[in-house]
Amino acid sequence: MANAYLNRGFAYSDLGRFDDAVDDATKAIELEPSDVNVLAQAYSDLKQTRKAQREYDDLLRMNPHHKLALTAYERNRLELRPQLRSSYSYFEQNGWGSLADITRLIYGTSVRIPYRNEEEYLDLGYARASYNPPDDDTLYGNIWSARLQNQPLERLLLFGQINFEDFPNRFADRLTYDAGFKLDVTDYARFGFDFFRENIVENGETLRQDIHREGIKLGTDFKPHRRWDLGASYLWAEYSDNNPLNELNLYNAFRLTLPPKLLKLTLNYNFKNFSKQTVFNPNPRNLRGIRIPYFSPDDYSTYSATIEWKHYLGKEFFKGADQCWYDLQYTASLDSDSEYYNTWRAELNWDIRNWLTLNAQGMLTRSGVYDAESIAAYLIIRFR
Q1: CATH T-level fold of 2-79
Q2: Are the CB atoms for 221 and 189 separated by under 8 Å?
């Protein structure tokens, strides 16, 4: 009977049904203690780090040389230690009649203090921002941030981030924020809600007019099968120049192969509708003083298809293992104006040590109306 529960627990974990895996693994261990780590892994996948640690601790008492348990136990322990995080982000865009024409550079450091599970933490940070439009001086600013995440229930994650953005001119000093919750209704379904305020950094005129927006976002994700994900999100935002936005996003993703060599196809539909559209000057490249100085289409749709290849290079790729992987993506898009877009993305993640992680990303978009490129990287140091 114990083996039957244990085998079904492995099957549930493989399908992504981690709560069911926990139930069956618990029943199996009650009937017959085992050194198999399905219960600990299920807790790790549910981000219930302290419960996972207790299970790994029990496994190591039975088998002190259990290699996978030793690896996961030490990594989970470090995930609960204070962390230093440094990040760098460069983004450049131009197109849509000069409405998207700016270079953004943001780099900063934060200290993260987990206090119960790895998704429950206090994060305090500082970033330096540089916004460089072609028709004005570079705007430099400071961004101070604080983020708190808490799980009052096993399936409910609350989060809140507040930033103080300080600029010498153009943008007014203000608090921006993002707060909400994520609820795992079942192993197959997640629902999320958040409300936000953010500055709009699209070109020199959005800086000069101090454009910002406030809004809400609703989203839901489903996982009917370990190979299949689908979901939808809705965003409503009110811009500071009294221009509401309604945005809908739908996606459907299917994994053609599974890790360590993951091949995934994702289909995406995005719809945007602004109440007001841009009113250009006689010279459309001169944005000074225009009304609605950002890309604000009416009944605008984009259809996209993405093929993704993610390859785990190490022998172990379970939750808690030191991982090294790369991810390559290509996206072909067509919008309702019959414009084609090509986007390439690449990402490399390397756990140099269990206490040190390096991640680097790049993106390139090319089309007849809009071009963009970005480079980003972050470094995580987990204090031992």
Answers
A1: 1.25.40
A2: yes
Place of tokens 């109440």: 275
Relative orientation angle of helices 2-15 and 18-31, to the nearest 10 degrees:
160
CATH topology agreement for domains 2-79 and 84-382 = no
Q: How many CA atoms lie within 13 A of 70 on its CB side?
A: 6
pTM exceeding the 0.85 threshold for the entire prediction: yes
The helix/strand/coil state of 178 is strand
CA 121 → CA 82, 113, 147, 149, 282, distances in Å?
9, 5, 8, 5, 52
Q: Which of 127, 156, 8, 94 is nearest to 372 (CA)?
A: 94
Q: What is the DSSP letter of 179?
A: E
Q: Are strands 356-367 and 174-186 parallel, antiparallel or unpaired?
A: unpaired
Q: Thinking of the domain 84-382, which architecture would CATH place it in?
A: Beta Barrel (2.40)
| Pairing relationship of beta strands 300-312 and 261-274 according to DSSP bridges | antiparallel
Q: For 210-246, how does the pLDDT look when each residue is reduced to its tens digit (9 = 90+)?
A: 999 999 999 999 999 889 999 999 999 999 999 999 9
Cα(first)–Cα(last) distance of the chain, in Å? 41
Alpha helices in the chain (DSSP H): 2-15, 18-31, 38-45, 49-62, 67-79, 204-208
For the chain, which residues make up each domain, given as ranges? 2-79, 84-382
Q: CA angle, corner 90, sides to 148 and 321, nearest 5?
A: 55
The per-residue pLDDT for range 53-89, each reduced to its tens digit, is: 888 888 888 888 888 888 888 988 999 999 999 999 9
The helix (run of H) or strand (run of E) holding residue 161 is strand 156-166
Closest C-alpha among 213, 149, 135, 142 to residue 180: 149
The DSSP letter of residue 103 is: E
Distance between CA 182 and CA 84 in Å, rounded?
25
